[in-house]
Amino acid sequence: MTTPVASLDPSLATAAARPRLAALPPPSAAAALLVTKEKNRADPSKSGSVLLQVCLQHQVKYGEHVGIIGSAKELGAWKQHVKLDWSEDGWVCQLELPGEAAVEFKFVIVSKGGNDKTWEGGDNRAIQLPKGGTLDIVCNWDKTEEPLGPSGTPKVDRAPKHAAPQTVGDVSAANLAPETDSSSFGGQWQGSEAVFMRSNEHGNKSSDRMWDTAGLGGMALKLVEGDKSSKNWWQKLDLVRRLVSEPVDDQSRLEALICSAIYLKWIYTGQISCSEDGGHYRPNKHAEISRQIFRELEKMYYTKGISPEDVLVIRKIHPCLPSFKSEFTATVPLTRIRDIAHRNDIPHELKQEIKHTIQNKLHRSAGPEDLVATEAMLTRITKNPGEYNGAFVEQFQIFYSELKDFFNAGSLFEQLESIKESLNDSGLEALSSFVKTKQSLDQVDAANIQVVMKTLQSLSSLRSVLMKGLESGLRNDATDAGIAMRQKWRLCE
């Protein structure tokens, strides 16, 4: 299993929901995350056995890890817990258990050093295993009564995914994706849930946060120290800008990139929260800082001695930077939400919620949590078709699309749509071919090697177009519009 550089075991870190900011590992430890680790996997085809794949979605404190313990001997027979591994999806493990067995289990949080255990509350979790095959279980801490579906996954109501387009037609003229595709990081969000408010209730969320710098040095120490005075998103972005602008040698450059990638990923997923400091900066402030960071990263691509590790980590940073297209660097960007909040065809209470939860917050101190709140509001107003004025819903969907664009959180097809105008005829042909083959691949029920190969070939052709366009460095006299389009090309590549 390859662990992405922007994902760390929470036993080394602390999420925003907890009152301590994680101390980042030294560069050698962080770089080790890039190494592919082979793990033994149980064979679900073995007669009479079941491969149980467990995932627990829960955050723990600094130095802690999660274990599972239960009635079966494979689960420690209630004596010794089995340690779970951290992944982007949560705490996971694979267990080979006897088929048709009735198993009871619970999760425990093990303290740093392993001396203390905290058991989740409630009754024991119970599951009846099938005869054989694979069973996936996704659980939530303390929710021991949550029902399990046929596949083992808890039955939960999720925000509806908007359907992908069925046909594309001429890619040079057609949209590649609907405006209301879900954002790319909404499903990864681990921060606080959106709370609709009718007055300014955005408090200082970091007042009780602690910064542990024990054992830190170099760029990691500078990052943690810098975060003490960086409450909101633009200040955290500016901290990253200073980090990536400072390195003077290969080692410090890689260290700065790794720390920045991890830090930005944690911010984008809500593990490090952003709070207000009483200032008032519109999103154009964030966009300008993002452009400066992007320029520094582009310089690194063409620096003598740049390593594959450097390039890999830079690729992790790009999706966590906001867009700096002209509409976002304007003096007053994202004004559509202001017009929406002043409409006369929606209830007063809803207007107040949009105004205080999204509009004022976004224009005063923007952060990734604003996209999460907007997604939640969109789900709410589209839940019952006809409940709200159609024109209002349409305008809100357009705003949601604009906000995703600002956060660079669009789907693959939305990102490809954004670069369409900059492609020449051969590029448009490669794009059209990829879109068509990808849609064909999505529609086949079983693995079709011919469709898979066609999709891979068209993907390679499109990527070669993008790589050719990016092979020369960023010109010193490049226009702002040109740099913004180059950012989109990087994201698509």
TrEMBL record:
Q: Which GO terms describe its molecular function?
A: starch binding
Query: Which Pfam family is one of those matched by this entry?
Result: CBM_20
Q: Cite the SUPFAM superfamilies for this sequence.
A: Starch-binding domain-like
Indicate the segments forming the CBM20 domain, all copies.
42-143
Q: Where is this region: Disordered?
A: 143-188
Question: Which InterPro entries does the record match to this protein?
Answer: Carb-bd-like_fold, CBM20, Ig-like_fold
Q: Where is the signal peptide?
A: none
Q: What PROSITE patterns does the entry give?
A: CBM20 (PS51166)
Identify this protein by name: CBM20 domain-containing protein
Q: Which organism is it from?
A: Triticum aestivum (Wheat)
